[in-house]
Amino acid sequence: MNLTGKNILISGGGGYGVGGGICKALHEYGARLIINEICEERIEAVLKAYPDAIPVIADVSRYAEVEAMFHRLEKEVGIIHGLVNNAGVGLSQSAHETSEAEFDDLYQVDIKGVWMMSKFFVKQLLQHQSGGNIVNISSVHAHATMSRYAVYGSAKSAVEGLTRGMAVELGKYDIRVNAIAPGYVHAEQNYDLIRTWTSEAEQWVQDYIQKGQAIPRAVQPEDCGYAVAFLLSDLGKSITGQTICVDNGDTIKLSGV
Ligand SMILES: NC(=O)c1ccc[n+]([C@@H]2O[C@H](COP(=O)([O-])OP(=O)(O)OC[C@H]3O[C@@H](n4cnc5c(N)ncnc54)[C@H](O)[C@@H]3O)[C@@H](O)[C@H]2O)c1
């Protein structure tokens, strides 16, 4: 895989989880990282690891900020060849207990943000008369889920619907649109979410990895990054509208047997 000379924008790229693994893999394969974040502290930390990266603070859930970000990047960077829609928020709450504000906040980032980022990304590609690539970060919860994840899973299902539909619309411009659906990718802050349904968070993660997955080892952030790098690279040039589960065989396994 070779991403040398490619300007790739990663939303939420200052994250410690999937976002961190994506930056690591794309950097390894030669891409020029353009890292979007809502959080200044996180972007400062990630710039220490990638001093040549271009930081861009913006909230992907706000239309005006997304538009301003692409105007700024057009002037400062020129064409953006690839977009990874990684920024996302979680929610551990039953659908019937979810408040309107929780629902709106999640959908605003997890699906509307993906649409807005993709819209402005595609417009600049068309202006440059260039092909390009989008990789969206979905989740296994779009395929098989558990209690408290209906709302989150529905937003990720919408991400996969958008992925397929935009792939159909944009194929004629040589713009590919794909997604990855990570399984459980550990980050310390995940324990806070898991503690909403069990006091034994560490044990729950171990059981999930050992019994829930076909391959009983943790999915590492960079495993997601390598799948993204492949989809962005020319090795994936005939793949569009697809979702690859990066889940150590979690979604293919019957539970309890
Ligand atoms: N961690 C997992 O187990 C897992 C599993 C499946 C899917 N995912 C998906 O992977 C993606 C990354 O999640 P993660 O948990 O690995 O976290 P991450 O470590 O990649 O962090 C996400 C980053 O997004 C940033 N962000 C949040 N809202 C933003 C906004 N409105 N604008 C710009 N940046 C914003 C945060 O500051 C954070 O740095 C999400 O889309 C998530 O739904 C995660």
Write a concise keyword list for the protein shown above.
257 residues; Rossmann fold; 7 strands; 44% helix; globular; binds nicotinamide-adenine-dinucleotide
Description:
It is a single chain. With 257 residues, the chain is an alpha/beta fold. The protein has a single domain (7-246), classed as NAD(P)-binding Rossmann-like Domain (Rossmann fold), CATH 3.40.50.720. The chain is built from eight helices and seven strands. It has helices at residues 18-28, 40-49, 63-76, 100-127, 150-170, 190-194, 201-212, 221-232; strands at residues 7-10, 32-37, 54-57, 82-85, 132-137, 175-182, 243-246. A seven-stranded parallel beta sheet has the order 3-2-1-4-5-6-7, with helices on both faces. Strand 4, helix 4 and strand 5 form a beta-alpha-beta unit. Helix 1 (18-28) crosses helix 8 (221-232), helix 3 (63-76) runs parallel beside helix 4 and helix 4 runs parallel beside helix 5 (150-170). It is globular and about 50 Å long. The mean pLDDT is 96. Bound molecules: nicotinamide-adenine-dinucleotide. Nicotinamide-adenine-dinucleotide binds at residues 11-12, 14-20, 36-39, 42, 59-61, 86-89, 109, 113, 137, 139, 182, 184-185, 187.
